[in-house]
Amino acid sequence: MGSVVRSTTGEGRASQPPPAPHLNVLVVDDHSAYRAMLGCFLQKLGVAHQSVADGRQGLLAVINRPSDLIISDCQMPDMDGYRMARAIRQHERRKGLKRVPIIALTANLQNDDPQRCRDAGMDAWLLKPLALEQLHAVLVRWLPGTFSAWGRPSAGTWPTRAQLVQTFGNEQVVDQMLPGLLDEAWEDFAILEQACCTLSTLLTAQRLHRLVGSLAFLGGTDLELRGVKLIELVHADGVLAHAPALQAFRADLRRCLEYLRSV
Questions:
Q1: Which one has a higher pLDDT value, 72 or 139?
Q2: Tell me, what's the pLDDT at 86?
Q3: What's the rounded Cα separation, in Å, for the pair 220 and 87?
Q4: Structural domain of residue 56, as residue ranges?
Q5: 157 falls in which pLDDT band (50, 70, 90)?
Q6: Which of 144, 186, 230, 262 maximizes the CB count within 10 A of its CB?
């Protein structure tokens, strides 16, 4: 998806070559496959990182080890991205520390609008699904250094194994990551089916959110775009109003996941 980096402060950092592998990026997201793939992209771009599963772990990570950039999902259990951002800003003020940029990740701007991000102390927001090009743009803007661009399969086609290997670096990484991502996607797919049958707006939107995050890293389909749009529509009108579109999305998603299982 052509996500756009939006600044909530109007300020950015000038890029200075060369890339600095000693820099530390903190990834905070409750979606394990999404964390793993973001980590893979950061490694491919030459930037050190650590990943945690919720805002409370993110806050502890910041306290224990300074970060140069934080990329955090907004909606997480226990402590969400907003509460974490506020806690980090309080910690910085108490300790007299430099303000670390916090970039919000969201699949739904209806609930996670820029003003809410700004009020929590975040510096910018990104729409999920986050492609490698968008991550590259974030690093160029918010971290010193220049980073090599990496391509993705063109939109509208399902990725081949060769394209997945090109994206993730080597065969071993694909073999390690793809099965786990597909396992989570099938689990989310089953819960999405149940949520649609019971007309649960919240659960439908949540599972679409997770599936969009998984699909974004595979690239080459229009399913991410359709999923993001469906999240907005379901939040606005409920499940029943968009039942045909949801059914068509699930049918295409099933075919895509079955194809990826054979890649």
A1: 72
A2: 97
A3: 38
A4: 6-142
A5: low
A6: 230
| Domains: count for the chain | 2
Measured between its terminal Cα atoms, the distance across the chain in Å is 22
How does the average pLDDT of the chain come out, rounded?
80
pTM over 0.85: no
Task: Indicate the residue among 142, 173, 196 that finishes a domain.
Answer: 142
Q: Is residue 155 part of a domain?
A: no
DSSP track, 99-158: PPPEEEEES-TTTS-HHHHHHHT--EEEESS--HHHHHHHHHHHSSS-------PPTTSP
102-135 CB burial, b ≥16 within 10 A, e <16: bbbbbbbbeebebebbbebbbbbbbbbbbbbebb
For residue 244, the domain's CATH number is 1.20.120
Q: Band the pLDDT of 32: cuts 50, 70, 90.
A: confident
Task: Pull the structure tokens for residue 62.
Answer: 């910041």
